[in-house]
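F.,

This is the one I mentioned.
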C-alpha cells in the first residue's frame, strides 16, 4: 500500500476511535495486521498522532479550560476541585505506565489479545449499562476525590490493548455514580495528561525513529492533521449519542469486531 495512504488511513482510525469506547490502540494493531505493514516501524507514529485527537478536545472545550484557568487564578473552589480530580485520575496511569512500560509494549504485538479484549469489554459495557441506575454527580468538580482516584485506577486496565482508555474511564465513572455526559467529558479531559505523558515517554525512548526513512516528520504531520479533523467531528457526535442512547451500540460493535478479528486471525 502507498505510504501516504497508510498514513491517512491510520489518522482516520485514530481520530475515529480515540474517544469512543472501542480502543484506538486495538484498532491500530488490527489495522497493522489487515494492511500488512510493519507495526514496529509505525509504533512511534501511532503514539504521536494521538496528540492530534487530544488537540481536538482542547479546541472544542477551550471555554471550559479558560474558565478553569481563570478560576484557579481567583482561587475558586470549583476550579480547584476540577484540577484536583484530573490530577488524581491521572496519577495511577502515570505510575503504572512507568513501571510496566516494557510489558505493555510486548502486548502491543499481540492482535489476539486485542480481539479478546474487545469481546470481554463489550460484554462488560452491556452488564454495566444494565446495572448502573443511580447517577449522583453531574459535573467534574462535583466528583468526590476518592471516586476521581477510582476512575484513575480503573483507567490502568486500559493498558491492555483492546480494552479502551475511554471505555475504561467512562464505564468506571458510571459505576462510581457519575452521570453519562459528565463521565464522557471527564474521559476526554483525562486523555490530555494521559496521552501527553505516554507520548513524552515514547519520545524519550524512541525519538530517533521519527527521523527514519519509513516514518518521517511529514508523515507525522499528515497523520496528526487527519486525526485532529476526524476527532473534532467524532467528539460532538459521541456526546450527543450517549446522552440519548447510552453506550450499548458500542458494546455490540466491540463484540462483533472482536469475533470477526478472531475468525480472521484464525484463518491466516
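My design for it:
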Amino acid at each position: 500500500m502507498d505510504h501516504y495512504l497508510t498514513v491517512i488511513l491510520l489518522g482516520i482510525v485514530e481520530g475515529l476511535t480515540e474517544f469512543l469506547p472501542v480502543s484506538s490502540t486495538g484498532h491500530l494493531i488490527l489495522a497493522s495486521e489487515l494492511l500488512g505493514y510493519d507495526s514496529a516501524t509505525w509504533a512511534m507514529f501511532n503514539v504521536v498522532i494521538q496528540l492530534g485527537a487530544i488537540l481536538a478536545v482542547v479546541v472544542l472545550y477551550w471555554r471550559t479550560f479558560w474558565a478553569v484557568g481563570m478560576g484557579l487564578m481567583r482561587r475558586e473552589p470549583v476550579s480547584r476541585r476540577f484540577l484536583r480530580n484530573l490530577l488524581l485520575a491521572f496519577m495511577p496511569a502515570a505510575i503504572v505506565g512507568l513501571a510496566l512500560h516494557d510489558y505493555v509494549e510486548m502486548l502491543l504485538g499481540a492482535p489476539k489479545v486485542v480481539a479478546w479484549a474487545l469481546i470481554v469489554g463489550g460484554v462488560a459495557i452491556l452488564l454495566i449499562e444494565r446495572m448502573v441506575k443511580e447517577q449522583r454527580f453531574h459535573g467534574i468538580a462535583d466528583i468526590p476525590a476518592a471516586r476521581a482516584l477510582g476512575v484513575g485506577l480503573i483507567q490502568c486496565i486500559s493498558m491492555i490493548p483492546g480494552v479502551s482508555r475511554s471505555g475504561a474511564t467512562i464505564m468506571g465513572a458510571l459505576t462510581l455514580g457519575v452521570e453519562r455526559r459528565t463521565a464522557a467529558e471527564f474521559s476526554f479531559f483525562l486523555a490530555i495528561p494521559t496521552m501527553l505523558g505516554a507520548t513524552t515517554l515514547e519520545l524519550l525512548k524512541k525519538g530517533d525513529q521519527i527521523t527514519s526513512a519509513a516514518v518521517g516528520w511529514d508523515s507525522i504531520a499528515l497523520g496528526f492533521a487527519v486525526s485532529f479533523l476526524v476527532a473534532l467531528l467524532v467528539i460532538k457526535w459521541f456526546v450527543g449519542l450517549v446522552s440519548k442512547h447510552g453506550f450499548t451500540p458500542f458494546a455490540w460493535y466491540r463484540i462483533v469486531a472482536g469475533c470477526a478479528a478472531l475468525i480472521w486471525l484464525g484463518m491466516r
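The chain has 13 helices and no strands.

Talk soon.
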